[in-house]
Amino acid sequence: MSVGDAGLFGEGLFADDEAARPVVDPGAPLAVRMRPRSLDEVVGQQHLLGPRAPLRRLVEADEPMSLVLYGPPGTGKTTLAHVISLATKRSFVQLSALDAGVKEVRAVIASAKRELTHAGRRTVLFIDEVHRFSKTQQDSLLSAVEDRIVSLIAATTENPFFSVVSPLLSRSLVLALQPLSDGDVRTLLHRALTSDRGLAGAVTLSAEAEEHLVRVAGGDGRKALTALESGAGAALAVGATEIDLQTLETAVAQAAVRYDRSGDQHYDIASALIKSIRGSDVDAALHYLARMVEAGEDPRFIARRLVISASEDIGMADPTALLTAVAAADAVAFIGMPEGHFPLAHAVVHLATAPKSNAVTTAMGESVADVRAGLAGPVPAGLRDAHYSGAKALGHGKTYVYPHDHPDGVVPQQYPPDALVGRDYYRPTNRGVEAAISTRLAKLRAIVRRRG
User: Model-level pTM?
Assistant: First the structure.
């Protein structure tokens, strides 16, 4: 990807030009009103915005580049796009992949061509949720991005290496955003409480309520500001000038997690639960489950952690562990609390006493690492789709051997691309069901990989 002399988003920066800043509707949501208007106002993401970080260099050095912003919700993807638009004299167009298609994309590109031809002005195209675009929709952007008719800023919450087509990735710089730290969230809350664009000092926030807001935000700035706005509305409605914990809980309809006073925190208890399960200490695991339940922890959060534990730490050593964890999650959703703690306990006991294996976790990690390292290659011709017209002429499926035609149901045949032939990802342990799987797997690999 070459870097030419043209600017990334235009000829000059005017982030501090008040006339360039849009007027924000005072009735807009707090998160919208508090949206930063310059890179220096952005909270968090210092790995991208620090003095010598890539995004700041790209903007301030006027380098031509299209971007893919990848990260969890509420970490600033849309915010960065708007900030960049304010730091540029280019046209700014926003599309959402939820309701835009090829027609809308082509219309923007046609308009951008006219702007470039008649006014010499380039266009920034921001596409939110780009992973929802089909391959055809993404392909429709390629020539405009390649020719720099538009500078693309694409935002996604999903791994772009799986959800964005390779040709578009190769023309863009992928920047990963991280969840906001607790300190970042506090900065957002304090700024919103005092700013003229925010709550302008109309209310204060108790220390206990602030802790709760930081916790429930989970690194999501938008979620924190939305909850703060709800709490402020509830407090002002009853004539209060302070948002206390009770008011905030009522406003956001989510109980605070009150662990004991020994200093244990929300994620510490969750971590202790999972590590006790991993260590096969069923009694300790039940203790931490009880603490979470009694603290009013969201049972769906507990259930999700158990489902992850079943796959990550038990895997194929006991394939029924995942079934139990998923059943517990369904049962909690069906019957609710407090009775929901029984299926949760059922799952905890099963997982803690089950044989353990992280072989599946390791296998997936190594497989993904190879894909990211470029170890892929063409699908063997025999495995390619042979059902469409013309496939046979291309040799697709011609050498494929149908395993069910063999008495044992297994035949020697190359399945992976050439670069990965003979590579072992899954290495089962000798614990639980995996002991039998290990024996069978050795036989399967010997047959499948047999040559001659």
Answer: 0.53
